[in-house]
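#lab-general

N.A. 3:47 PM
ok so I finally got the sequence cleaned up, no stray characters, all 119 residues accounted for. can someone with queue access submit it? mine expired

B.Y. 3:52 PM
send it over

N.A. 3:53 PM
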Amino acid sequence: QVQLVESGGGLVQAGGSLRLSCVVSGTTFSFDAMGWYRQVPGKEREFVARLSSSGGTTYADAVQARFIISRDNAKNTMYLQMNSLKPEDTAAYYCSAHKWMRSRWRDTWGQGTQVTVSS
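B.Y. 4:20 PM
back already:
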């Protein structure tokens, strides 16, 4: 019943910036954490950034100091500001909501948005 919809992906040149959005609908309760992940064809899905319910942030080493995760609760939207983009950032980006229920994490995923960085 919970839906996550990503948007903001596209084609950008190396060194440019892009902001991804993830709109959450279908629920009124808060998740324990939300995050961004990315996946390249033939590779496993990779953690990018996470935002806890307390406001703490965690970033993958590959995007540290370049990406910023944030959330606007009033708009039910999470963002990923991506700066100084590199060709290796090219991937399908997914947002996810995490809920701790019955002794395990329950994850809800969006459909993904493609980010392509050209050199």
